[in-house]
Amino acid sequence: MSETPLSAHNLKIHELEAFRAVMLRGTATEAAVLLHTSQPVVSKLIARFQRHIGIKLFELRKSRLVPTPEARVLFHTIERTYAGLEHVAHTIAELRGGHSGRLVVGSLPSFGMGPLADIAARFLKDEPGIRISVETVNSSLIRHSVVSGKADLGVALKSIDTAGVNAEPLVEVNTVCVMDRTHALAGKRSINVRDLEGVPMILPSRDSASHTAIAQMFADEGITPHLSAETSYAMTMCLLAMQGAGAALVSPFAAMHLRRSGLVIKRFEPSLPIELMLLTALDSSPSRISSMFIERLKAAMPALRQQWG
Question: HTH lysR-type domain spans which residues (predicted)?
Fold first, then answer.
């Protein structure tokens, strides 16, 4: 086979398409259907492609084309390229002002599984051509994703370093106390920190900012919390509380959708505020789709502030 040096401009797009189609469909006949051409044309393109690149890509076994290991490696590389081209197509559609495109939103897990899911669902009903990817990670990773361009926008805790991003206040709410329906405190209108003395508590992980704030509040009152469990996620804290493992102090965003499943949610005193920021890229304006979504996001905040602030 030829050993002619190859460069990107030497590659023939029709040969690449024929190779990809055979890999996807398994036979030249099925590949021809995919490409809206004939089986002989596909076979000729495959033969020409193999000669052109100097690599054997298929072996004929019982009238079937069986990919070689080299073919599989090449196919994975081509698929990554096609995925990139799909992203280019979506970007072009967005820039042309069509109602299509992709939006990547980074969010705290509690907000992403609570209000953000509701807002995104309503947005998608109105804009069915848009795809939304919600990445639920911690605040530092959200900032990094926005800085690097992996996320179009992010919702993170105010306490993080906001270097390299535009950060504006989004919403402030208060921590709530959650428990199961049979809990001794379930009948109270609101819960005071003193009510939790001696009560089994489900706390955030020790390395989290919320654990530090809760521990300091108990210390200020001279109370040693009765620890029953620790976990990294507020949603897990709520589920443990709902199963009777103890009471928990969490973001209302993590708890709000579990009320209908039996979780009891109570206002808590003293106030432990949770402040969220909206993060966007520092060196560029939001895209049209991002701006549309940010508008929806901000419009939903007054109701959340009124209910949980």
Answer: 11-68
3-state secondary structure string, 51-82? HHHCCCCEEEECCEEEECHHHHHHHHHHHHHH
* Structure token digits, residue 108: 């705290």
Helix, strand, coil fractions of the chain, as percent rounded to 5: 50, 25, 30
Q: Contact 15/48 with Cβ under 8 angstroms? A: yes
Is the pLDDT confidence value at 121 over 90? yes
pLDDT value at 288 more than 50: yes
Q: What is the per-residue pLDDT across 36-95, written as a single tens digit (0 to 9) for each?
A: 999 999 989 989 988 888 889 888 887 778 889 998 998 888 888 877 777 677 667 666
CATH of domain 101-173+275-308: 3.40.190.10
- Asked whether the beta carbons of 276 and 157 are under 8 A apart, the reply is yes
Element containing residue 146 per DSSP (H, E): helix 139-148
For residue range 127-182, what is the model confidence (pLDDT) as tens digits? 888 889 999 888 888 999 898 888 999 999 998 888 888 999 999 999 999 999 99
CA dihedral angle for residue 33, residue 36, residue 42, residue 44, rounded to 10 degrees:
150
What phi and psi, each to the nearest 5 degrees, are found at residue 42? -60, -45
Domain 176-270, CATH class in plain words:
alpha beta
Retrieve residue 1's tokens: 């086979």
The full set of domain ranges for the chain reads 8-95, 101-173+275-308, 176-270
CB contact burial 32-56 (16+ within 10 A = b; e otherwise): beebebeeeebbebbeebbebbeee
- Please, which residues have CB within 8 angstroms of residue 179's CB and are 6 or more apart in sequence? 185, 186, 241, 246, 247, 248, 263, 264, 266
Residue 176 near residue 252 (C-beta atoms within 8 A): yes
Q: Nearest 10 degrees: CA dihedral of 108, 109, 113, 117? A: 40
